[in-house]
Write a structure and sequence with these properties.
With about 325 residues, the protein is an alpha+beta fold. It has 11 helices and 11 strands.
Length: about 325
Amino acid sequence: MAEKVERLVNLTIALLESPGAMSLEELRRRPRYYTEGSAMSSRRMFERDKDELRRLGVPIETVTLPYSDELGYTIRRRSYELPDVELTGEEVAALALAVRLTGAEDTPLALAKLAARAPDPVPIELPGDTRVEVSPEPIDAVADAVVGRPTVTFTYRAADGTVATRTVDPYGVVQRRAAWYLVGRDHTRDALRAFRLDRMTDGPVPVGDPGAFDPPDDLDVAAAVSGPALPGVEVTLAVAPEARWSVEVRGGRDTGRTHGGWPVLTLDELHPVRDRAWVLGLGAAVAVLGPEQLQADVRAGLEAVLAAHRGDTAPQATQPDAGHSEGQP
């Protein structure tokens, strides 16, 4: 595995540093890889590496070399490199806080460079020794499996709470709505499935040799976690002050109206199924004013939670009744 990673890194560097496109023969001479075995086996190894880098997001382009019918390969820096990071003073302070909470060490110099580019000087020294331990697993193990392509097995807790062992050919990893998913072929169902990494309770553990499978050529990992294509709906919420930031970061716009003393915010294109859980998570801090179906679904969800906690005597927050007229408590 280490040899392959080194080869992929060196191939990327060689294509980035070259002033023009390089042929396979030039690549054989420069990084001194793809020199063992026959020309055909070298070509196959290079093609596998090139496809692997493309799947990882490296924009390798194939062009025809000047005055030749031979193919060349290049990576354009403007396609590969990220643009300059321009942060406000508040964003630098938030980044410094995040670094401090996760316990990352040896970062003051990097933070100082970011702070120096902010429009206003900002302090990055933060008091306190609070730490939030962030476990690298199972992300590291999944990344290794995606690159090495062994079949893996892991224990997985489904959305309904059931726990089972899954055997999967890992094709790729994708993020959606702050959650990371492993996309691959589930051996039990013999179909493409997506698994949330935070629901893996054990593993993943390789159970086969590297290179045991090839991902489909037409694979779209983002589509695998997009869910059913249902049209978005406009949602109107009365929002308590403590939850306003959560609604605004989701795209909520202030309508200038109030309901029961709370400001009324509108959100566009919310998914009628997936985003319902987010609204429920806000609990008594919001009241759904529309649409009626979401209002009924959220009310039913909250009643189900109350029914499951009848013995809980903790005080409940006061929520405006969605049935009251605008501006009335």
